[in-house]
């Protein structure tokens, strides 16, 4: 049996992201592990490769995910997550995790290939990450708007559908869901965190 | 003409094991009676492989940088009646091919005295290919087929690996090297983990962290399964093997069976006692493993009902066994007790594995680095020979 995997996307209000939640003082604010992880990303971008850096980055991301889940279980301050359905969902036109992974894996490569350097420098490159701090969401929305209007996007969906064994419609819907999540987050001044769960 | 005839006569060697053994020891730069030196890279080196006090084989070999192949000068096999037929030959050829792959990245072996009889017989038996007694070179193509045949992978797995465009010998090498196991590979395929992430290029943890985390969590589950099997096999200290557990993969299901009763904790021997695990399996009873990889410890209790429901659904295939990481014991006692009682009430089994999620992650990172070390062609020969010295 292939276990199901689903992506739960949580919108985290900026105040909780920056200061934590008073009702659960044992949980640190998300900004703490997030700033550590962002520092590691910056070092990686500059090709400064400290020992065990990848491992520490994974631990930071996992910590962010566990804090968000605990907040969602206990505080009641978070809205219910937006769930991208599991791999095993047979309804082929629904957004799915495989379509999401496929889109994300091709997006970076595709952006380099089809988008001019001038445009690329304006775009926000953090597309396939686990967490998105509130201050960066606006850039994320801009990037998705730009991609949405790009003439080559349809080709990308066809390619993803072929490679990830999903349908083009599923890819389009997954992309739209993702875009709407960022728009909603920008409207509420929230950060975004994706949590992977096995079922 | 005369000299040529003489030369030909000289080259004809009767493979007497005693002479081969003497030759093996004689050609080694390692000398125990005086102050010896360890063989340098590219030197003729003699290895003796033994299982407890029974010699499996002795071989003298070196890696030739010019020809990029492993050369074998002396070869001696210990066909002891305690072993199954061809088992020492199988072990020795796997060692030689793995050595060739580690040193040069290709499976190419040259036997100075001709391919030994037992290896030729093994090839004939397994692959149906008859090799002349005068043949000295075990070609890459043939060696690859043999390496693959001895790995015991099913045709389905081989086809999957080939569709992913990964050299199958690379996967076999990492299995023989004990980085991954056959069960790991099968479970990875079943869970939809692309083998190219493990054996070719890992998803970038920074640029593509969501997929990286997907892979890591599934690998945690894969390792949990394997550790649970170790616990169930219950190998005693000083004993070569525990209870043999067989894995059966069908279309979309996997289950395990064992020809012995599996009882944890065993009250008769006070064996494997700890208060968190219990398993009651009769002889040849089918069972399924359900590894639980929670994002946070609270997820355990929150998802419990759903997990039990899922487990009940697969009861038709085999008795479900929950596998939990060691983190479980750090839950509050009441939560622990409640969790256990709900599983017990549902008539399910549960096993705790002796590693926490964090320790599992560390182990995965080590395994991934060790696998990646062999991928980089520049590192073959320079880096690996020193780091993983035989």
Gist?
Chain A is α+β, with helices and mostly antiparallel strands and 199 residues long.
Question: Can you offer a commentary on this structure?
Answer:
The complex is a heterodimer of chains A (199) and B (390). Chain A contains eight helices and four strands; from the N terminus they run βαααβααβαααβ. Chain A is of the alpha+beta class and 199 residues long. Chain A has one domain (5-198). In chain A, helix 2 (31-45) packs antiparallel against helix 3, helix 4 crosses helix 7 (153-164) and helix 7 (153-164) crosses helix 8. Chain A is globular and about 50 Å long. Chain B has two domains: 15-151, Aminopeptidase (3-Layer(aba) Sandwich), CATH 3.40.630; 181-357, no CATH class. In chain B, the strands form four sheets. Chain B has a five-stranded mixed beta sheet. Chain B has a three-stranded parallel beta sheet with strand order 10-11-12, sandwiched between helices. The two termini of chain B are 45 Å apart. Chains A and B meet through helix 2, helix 3, helix 4 and strand 4 of A and helix 10, helix 11 and helix 14 of B.
Give the biggest beta sheet of chain A. Answer: 4 strands, antiparallel
Order of helices and strands of chain A, N to C?
Answer: EHHHEHHEHHHE
Shape of chain A: globular
Spatial ordering of strands, largest sheet of chain A: 2-1-4-3
- Radius of gyration based on Cα positions of chain A: 17 Å
State the helicity of chain B in percent bands: 40-55%
Radius of gyration of chain B: 25 Å
- Summarize the main sheet of chain B: 5 strands, mixed
User: Average pLDDT across residues of chain B?
Assistant: 83
Classify the beta-strand content of chain B into a percent band. 15-25%
Q: SS-based structural class of chain B?
A: alpha/beta
Number of domains of chain B: 2
Shape descriptor of chain B reads elongated
